[in-house]
Design goal:
The protein has about 500 residues and is an alpha+beta fold. It has two domains: about 10-155, OB fold (Dihydrolipoamide Acetyltransferase, E2P) (Beta Barrel), CATH 2.40.50.140; about 175-320 and about 380-490, Bira Bifunctional Protein, Domain 2 (BirA Bifunctional Protein, domain 2, 2-Layer Sandwich), CATH 3.30.930.10. Helix content is about 35%, strand content about 25%. It contains 15 helices and 19 strands. The chain has helices at about 10-25, 40-55, 100, 105-110, 160-165, 165-175, 175-195, 240-245, 285-305, 325-335, 345-355, 365-375, 430-445, 455-465, 475-480, and strands at about 65-80, 80-85, 90-100, 120-125, 135-145, 200, 210, 220-225, 230-235, 250-260, 270-280, 305-310, 315, 320-325, 385-390, 400, 405-415, 415-425, 470-475. The strands form four sheets. Strands 6, 10, 11, 14, 15, 16, 17, 18 and 19 form a nine-stranded mixed beta sheet that branches. The longest helix has 23 residues, at about 175-195.
Length: about 500
C-alpha cells in the first residue's frame, strides 16, 4: 500500500492506484458503490460508548455494534493486523482489521486500499489496551476508490493558493476548515432565526439589474441575448427591498450575494454575501439598538458567551456598545477637526497634515471617509458605532434632523473591521432626485463608482414610502470575526483568485 511520493511523480502515483482499481474490478468488486447504510455517525458512536462507560464499571462488558462510513486518513499494517483511521463529517475513529476476524481472503484485499479511500465498516466499538476508542471490524467494504493521493500524505495542506483553489483538498487535509465553515453556517442560521422571530419576512430580489444602484461601487456588466441589452450584477439589493416597503411589507430582509468589480484583498472579494433589512416606522437610532441586540444574540448562539479572540485581541460584545459621532472620533483619534469646515481644499490640507494621501478627484466627503478609514478605524477593536456621516457620501440616507450637512447614518466596527452600514432611509423623492443628480455629476467627472439615477425608484418614492430604517451586514466579515480569520478568503468556500 505504500506510496513513495518523494521518488514518484504524481502520474506514477495515479497509475499505482489505477492498477489497484483494475485488480478490484477483476475480482468482481464495484469500486464506486451507490449507497451504504450507516447505523450512526462516528461522533454518535463515540458518544454512545462514552455514555455506556459512565453507566458501568465493567467496561469489558460494553457491547455496542456499529456500522460506520468515512474516509481513510491513516493506514498502519502489521502483518495479519491493520489499523486505519476513519473520518466522517463529525469525527474520527480508529478501525482494527484482523485476518482472523475478516477471513484470509477478505483480509488479502486490504492491500488494494489507499489513504483517501472511503470505507464502510461493521463491528463492535471498544477501547484498545492503550485506551483508544476503536471499531473492531467484522467486515469492511470499499465504497469509493480515491485515485489521487491526499496532500502531503494527509499531514496537512499549507500552501495558501492551493488551499483556496482546491477547497475540497483543504477540507480533507485540514479538518479545522470544516469547523470554520460550520461556524459561518451557524452564524447565518442564528441571524435568520433572530429576524424571523421578530416578524421580518425573508425575500429575494433580482441579481441581474438594469441599473446598478443601492451602493457606491463599480459593477460587473453582462449581456442578455434575448433582450439584446446590458445588465448589471447587483452591487446591493437596497433599491428593490425599498420598493417592497413601498408596496406594503413593513419588515423585510434578504441574505444573498452582491457583486462589486473592485480590488481583492484580505477584506474584499468581488462576490460576497450581505444581509440587508428594511423596517418601516423605524429610524437609525432604533435600528442601532436592534443591530446591537441581534449581534449579541448571534455571538451567544455561535460562540457560547460574550467574549472571543480575534487576531490577538479579546473582543467583548457585552452591552452597551460604544457610540461615537464620526467627527468626534476623528477629533479624538486623528487629531484634526474636519467638522469645522465644509471647504474641500481646507479639508484636504488638514488630511495631508496627518499623512493622508488625497487624490485630486476626492471630494469633501471622501476625504472625511479616508481619514476615518486610515486614522480612526484601526483603533476600533471593541464594538463601536460611528454615526452622522457627510451628505456627500450618503446619497440614500435622510438628512440629520438638526444639521442638513450630515445624514442619519451609522457604521459598526468590531476588531477593526467594518461590520455594517445603516441609515434612516431617504424617502423624500424630490431630495432623492437631487442626490442622484449630484451623483451623476460626479460620474460625469470620472467617478465610475458614483450612483446612477434610477427613475423607477424615484417613481416608487413618489407613490410613498413610510419612515424606514435599513441595515446591511457583511456576512463574510462577521464570519471572519467569529472564526478568528485574518482573511475573507478563509470564510468563503471558493474565493475569486487570479488565473494561473
Amino acid at each position: 500500500m505504500s506510496e513513495n511520493t518523494h521518488h514518484s511523480t504524481e502520474q506514477d502515483l495515479i497509475q499505482h492506484r489505477l492498477d489497484k482499481l483494475a485488480r478490484i474490478g477483476a475480482r468482481g468488486d464495484v469500486p464506486f458503490k451507490y449507497a451504504f447504510e450507516r447505523s450512526c455517525s462516528i461522533a454518535e458512536a463515540r458518544a454512545a460508548y462514552e455514555k455506556a462507560e459512565t453507566e458501568t464499571d465493567d467496561h469489558a462488558a460494553i457491547d455496542i455494534p456499529v456500522t460506520l462510513a468515512g474516509r481513510m486518513t491513516a493506514f498502519r499494517s502489521h502483518g495479519k493486523t491493520t489499523f486505519t483511521d476513519l473520518r466522517d463529517e463529525t469525527a474520527k475513529v480508529q478501525v482494527y482489521l484482523n485476518q482472523k476476524r475478516l477471513g484470509e481472503e477478505i483480509y488479502a484485499t486490504i492491500q488494494d486500499l489507499d489513504i483517501g479511500d472511503f470505507l464502510g465498516v461493521s463491528g463492535q466499538i471498544k477501547r484498545t489496551r492503550t485506551g483508544e476508542l476503536t471499531v473492531f471490524a467484522d467486515e469492511y467494504v470499499l465504497l469509493t476508490k480515491s485515485l489521487r493521493a491526499l496532500p502531503e500524505k494527509y499531514h496537512g495542506l499549507t500552501d495558501v493558493e492551493t488551499r483556496y483553489r482546491q477547497r475540497y483538498l483543504d477540507m480533507v487535509a485540514n479538518p479545522e476548515v470544516l469547523d470554520r465553515f460550520r461556524k459561518r453556517i451557524a452564524t447565518v442560521a442564528a441571524m435568520r432565526q433572530w429576524l424571523t422571530d421578530r416578524g421580518f419576512l425573508e425575500v429575494e430580489t433580482p441579481m441581474l439589474q438594469p441599473i446598478a444602484g443601492g451602493a457606491t461601487a463599480r459593477p460587473f456588466i453582462t449581456h442578455h441575448n434575448t433582450y439584446d441589452r446590458d445588465l448589471f450584477l447587483r452591487i446591493a439589493p437596497e433599491l428593490y427591498l425599498k420598493r417592497l416597503i413601498v408596496g406594503g411589507f413593513e419588515k423585510v430582509f434578504e441574505i444573498n450575494r452582491s457583486f462589486r468589480n473592485e480590488g481583492v484583498d484580505t477584506k474584499h472579494n468581488p462576490e460576497f454575501t450581505m444581509m440587508e433589512l428594511y423596517e418601516a416606522y423605524q429610524d437609525y437610532e432604533g435600528l442601532m439598538d436592534e443591530t446591537e441586540a441581534m449581534l449579541v444574540a448571534i455571538v451567544h448562539k455561535v460562540i457560547g458567551g460574550t467574549t472571543f479572540p480575534y487576531q490577538g485581541d479579546t473582543i467583548d460584545v457585552t452591552s452597551p456598545w460604544k457610540r461615537l459621532s464620526l467627527f468626534g472620533a476623528i477629533r479624538d483619534l486623528a487629531g484634526i477637526d474636519l467638522e469645522q469646515t465644509r471647504d474641500r481644499d481646507e479639508a484636504a490640507e488638514m488630511a495631508k497634515s496627518i499623512g493622508i494621501e488625497v487624490d485630486p478627484a476626492m471630494g469633501y466627503g471622501k476625504i472625511v471617509d479616508e481619514v476615518m478609514s486610515e486614522k480612526v478605524q484601526p483603533h476600533l477593536v471593541q464594538p463601536t458605532f460611528l454615526y452622522d456621516y457627510p451628505i456627500e457620501i450618503s446619497p440614500l440616507a435622510k438628512k440629520k434632523r438638526d444639521n442638513p450637512t450630515l445624514t442619519e447614518r451609522f457604521q459598526l466596527f468590531i476588531g477593526r473591521l467594518e461590520m455594517c452600514n445603516a441609515f434612516s432611509e431617504l424617502n423624500d423623492p424630490i431630495d432623492q432626485r437631487e442626490r442622484f443628480m449630484a451623483q451623476m455629476d460626479l460620474r460625469a467627472k470620472g467617478d465610475d463608482e458614483a450612483q446612477t439615477l434610477d427613475e423607477d425608484f424615484i417613481t416608487a418614492l413618489e407613490v410613498g414610502m413610510p419612515p424606514t430604517a435599513g441595515l446591511g451586514v457583511g456576512i463574510d466579515r462577521l464570519a471572519m470575526l467569529l472564526t478568528d480569520s485574518a482573511s475573507i478568503r478563509e470564510v468563503i468556500f471558493f474565493p475569486q483568485l487570479r488565473t494561473i
